[in-house]
Amino acid sequence: MAPACRFLQRTLAGYATHANFARRAGGGPGLREQTRSTPWLANSSLREGEDLQVFQHPGQPAAPARRWKKGIALVGGMLPRANQATRTPCSAAHITIGLQCGGSDGYSGISANPALGAAVDLLVRTAGTAILSETPEIYGAEHLLTRRAVRPRWARS
Question: Alpha-carbon distance 37 to 54, whole Å?
Answer without folding.
Answer: 8
